Amino acid sequence: MFKGLVSGLVAVAALQDLVAASPSLHRRNRCTELEEFIKKQNKVSIDGVLANIGPDGAKAKGASPGVVVASPSRSDPDYWYTWSRDAALTYKVLVERLIHGDKSLQSRIDDYVSAQAELQGLTNPSGGPDSGGLGEPKFNVNLTAFTGSWGRPQRDGPALRATALILYANWLVDNGARDQAVDKVWPVIAKDLDYTTRFWNRTGYDLWEEINGSSFFTLSASHRALVEGAALGKTLGKTCTDCAASAPKVLCFMQSFWVGGYIDSNINVNDGRTGKDVNSIISSIHTFDPEADCTDATFQPCSARALANHKAVTDSFRTIYGVNKGIPQGRAVAVGRYAEDVYYNGNPWYLATNAAAEQLYAALYQWKRIGSISITDVSLPFFKDLIPDIKTGKYDKNSKEFKSITKAVKLYSDDFLAVGKKYTPAEGSLSEQFDRNSGAPESAVDLTWSYASFISATERRVGIMSRSWGERGANTVPSVCEPAPSCDVDVTFNVRATTVAGETVFVVGGITELSNWSPANGIPLAASKDTSGGPLWKAKVKIPSETSFEYKYIKKNGNGDVTWESDPNRSGKTGKECNAAETLDDEWR
Ligand SMILES: *[C@@H]1O[C@H](CO)[C@@H](O)[C@H](O)[C@H]1NC(C)=O
Ligand SMILES: *[C@@H]1O[C@H](CO)[C@@H](O)[C@H](O)[C@H]1NC(C)=O
Ligand SMILES: *[C@@H]1O[C@H](CO)[C@@H](O)[C@H](O)[C@H]1NC(C)=O
Ligand SMILES: *[C@@H]1O[C@H](CO)[C@@H](O)[C@H](O)[C@H]1NC(C)=O
């Protein structure tokens, strides 16, 4: 039994709070029903997570030890893979449970460490072990590379895995197993931190694998990992080169996602969206530090910014889903990824709805610990939905406002769980989504992340917190944002190509440096004097290190007519060393 007596008591206290808040019989019944649902659904969720972990999980037979399968669904959609992100977020929850006493999980966590060490060593389409390969988003469940086309790289995986493993390493140190932390866990963490310091300032795909830009979720996960990674390094007598130097730069960059009252989840990309995306709410719960103040700079759950954002994001789903019809402001709604979503017609997700609850449970914890609530112009609209006549100001824990605000926020957060409850089948299985109109489960069945999100939300609800990641010492924003030092490779493109009078040769490809395939902006090659092996055309292009790209040569005549090389696309890859010279020797085809 994991929860034990203490949290059981907390849960009862929480229940009494609720009943006291609203003495009507109707509400009392609703709240008892919710308590019963949570108790049952927690067990289903823990079993659901463990069933999806190899090699013994009931629904993960055939997966390697420690591998988290995203979902047992093998078609429509095929999620029979292991994603670095989903696995890390799942193991973060399992490590927290280990820390709170469930020792039975330790062998699975050790399997996870070994499996991740193996994945870090694979060469895959994002690169090699030492040349960007850690940014590969997903792998086959037998720990081999997935080589099909995909939105890659995704740069959040290493940071999230570092966070899960840093929690574990600290627990090992606290429990007399320092050698294991040093010998087995730190080497994996060190590679992830190294990746994060080198790549945080590059674009990549977001957590929904659709947008190639700068994702708030990736940046905030990176910041947390760098801060706690630097501290763990000290504890273990190791160094994380550049962790401490990079963290404030990342924090500085994170500020530019805050745009007029909410977080724009994807920037450095022209995606035609508002940017209101549950990405930002999930970020806030992932970087929640139970010892932090309501800091705006790190978007803590109780910060004015994160609360304003909570309202902006959840409101964006109020009118677009049939299931939210008629639900008044101040009552919880079903939450999806972002309003423009069209995947499976764009539905609410269980993990998104749970995240909306979890942010508020975390905020409640912070207010109670701090002993006051400050309402500013930025957060006022969030609070007014719950208490229409509330005003800006600082409310001490003994004030009647503090009591009414915390009560209202508690009811509001429970209300998000109640929305999930309404659309959860009787046996408790959690798919990825539920239909925007009928509420019926949709897309992948038994999504591991859906279960993990339920567990973490309900643990925050009863006051089970993760340890501090050191937010207090890492929330000062530098006055000038510095980029990461650039690291480019000089790539010389050589191609032997015969041309007719007036024709010249260009190179184009799938990265900015190669004009993103635009023939009009192709990089011109110059005819070389050395024609002994046929006419040779040359161009030198600076390309970021550790970058995989596709390209082709084209010919243009005086009229601007373009002749493309025949398929397939060519592929190139730069190495790790900054300012190195590399050459591609090709022949026109
Ligand atoms: C691993 O899984 C992939 C995808 O299912 C399969 O193609 C491959 O043959 C497997 N490799 C091994 C070594 O089992
Ligand atoms: C890199 O960092 C600078 C400074 O914060 C920022 O202006 C820029 O948008 C960032 N670019 C990417 C791709 O992260
Ligand atoms: C993503 O966008 C960046 C900047 O626009 C570009 O350099 C990079 O090549 C793109 N990546 C892919 C895989 O298209
Ligand atoms: C080459 O890349 C372009 C741009 O990504 C793509 O549209 C095209 O299908 C690719 N060609 C082949 C043969 O894969």
UniProtKB/TrEMBL annotation:
UniProt entry tagged with the keyword Glycoprotein: yes
Family matches, as Gene3D superfamilies: 1.50.10.10, Immunoglobulins
Extent of the signal sequence: 1-21
Origin: domain of life: Eukaryota
Entries under Pfam families matching the protein: CBM_20 (PF00686), Glyco_hydro_15 (PF00723)
Catalytic activity: Hydrolysis of terminal (1->4)-linked alpha-D-glucose residues successively from non-reducing ends of the chains with release of beta-D-glucose
Any one Gene Ontology BP term: polysaccharide catabolic process
Example of a GO cellular component annotation carried by this entry: fungal-type vacuole
Annotated Basic and acidic residues bias: 567-576
Enzyme class: hydrolase
Enzyme nomenclature, EC number: 3.2.1.3
Alphabetized UniProt keyword annotations: Carbohydrate metabolism, Glycoprotein, Glycosidase, Hydrolase, Polysaccharide degradation, Signal
Residues in CBM20 domain copies: 483-589
Region Disordered, residue ranges: 558-589
Binding residues annotated for substrate, in chain numbering: W150
Active site, renumbered: D206, E209
Keyword RNA-binding on entry: no
Family: Belongs to the glycosyl hydrolase 15 family.
Protein name stated in the entry: Glucoamylase
Organism, as annotated: Purpureocillium takamizusanense
